[in-house]
Amino acid sequence: MAETLLLPPTTSRQEIYVSLLPQLEALTSGEPDLIANLANISAALKESFGFFWVGFYLKKGQELVLGPFQGPIACTRIAFGQGVCGHCYRTRAVVIVPDVDAFPGHIACSSASKSEIVLPAFDKNGEVALVLDVDSDRPDDFDETDRDGLLSVMRLIERML
Question: Which residues are CB-contacts of 13 (< 8 A; sequence separation ≥ 6)?
């Protein structure tokens, strides 16, 4: 695949997700390195939607450790159960936070982050292997369209695990 994304001329997130997924599949197919693939996926998501921060936290030992990302510098390590990412890891469920300041225990890596969505990816044993963390600098910026679109991205990633 070329190193250029072909995005539809629309602001519809649903249409962008539909267009983006086959491009991500083409971009990552045949590449066995997980980190390289996560790096390209985070870049593609940031480029496609203009999110404030897009990145991955990988399970390493007894915590989540920063992986490939796009955006300002970020928290390096997150304990299971701490912040939105740790909560996602513990509950094994998608977490949509319309107002990060209202989320108990939110870890503020950047005060510019206003809303967030975090999704888990499961390895072949059904364990959470990593989480995708997407932040917006706008309040209440994520909805079911993002949940569904990003879950499709996570299913692609799970095939790599």
Answer: 49, 145, 146, 149
CA distance 114 to 65: 22
> Under DSSP, is residue 124 helix (H, G, I), strand (E, B) or coil?
coil
Dist CA 41 CA 132 (whole Å): 10
**Reduced to 3 states, what is the DSSP secondary structure of residue 115?**
strand
pTM > 0.85: yes
3-state secondary structure of 85: helix
Chain segment 18-50, per-residue pLDDT in tens: 999 999 999 999 999 999 999 999 999 999 999
Calculate the dihedral angle through the C-alpha atoms of 161, 47, 3, 38, rounding to the nearest 10 degrees: -20
Q: Under CATH, what is the fold of the domain 13-158?
A: Beta-Lactamase (3.30.450)
Determine the Cα–Cα distance for residues 133 and 120; give it in Å rounded to an integer.
Answer: 9
Question: Reduced to 3 states, what is the DSSP secondary structure of residue 147?
Answer: helix
